[in-house]
Specification:
mainly alpha, 0% strand
């Protein structure tokens, strides 16, 4: 026997708003950090190890930025899904109320 899963559309909407804020903060932090994370090669000095060090750091920063960018995309996708689920629950609730009122013979409030 299957059990019904219930969710409050209002709470789902609040959760979606929380996810949206988190994705915005993460994206803002990424953009703010990208400019200052990898200094120009001249800041590493003129030793023989300066260029390889700069290249290694730059090589680590780019994938990290890509990973954070993907996290932002996932959070934004979750926001969309949460809003769709909240809407579906709201519609199901309205439909159920209509059915109940129709059976009772009265209008829905």
């Amino acid at each position: 026997m299957a059990t019904e899963v219930r969710a409050d559309p209002t709470e789902l909407t609040r959760l979606a708003a929380t996810f949206l804020k988190a994705s915005q903060r993460l994206g803002d932090a990424l953009r703010a950090a990208q400019a200052s994370v990898t200094p120009p090669v001249t800041d590493y000095g003129d030793t023989s190890g300066a260029a390889p060090l700069h290249k290694a750091e730059d090589g680590a920063v780019e994938p990290a930025g890509l990973a954070v960018g993907r996290l932002v995309e996932v959070l934004e996708g979750d926001v969309d899904r949460l809003y769709r689920i909240a809407f579906a629950y709201e519609q199901a609730d309205l439909h159920a109320m209509d059915d109940i009122e129709r059976r009772r013979g009265g209008p829905r409030p």
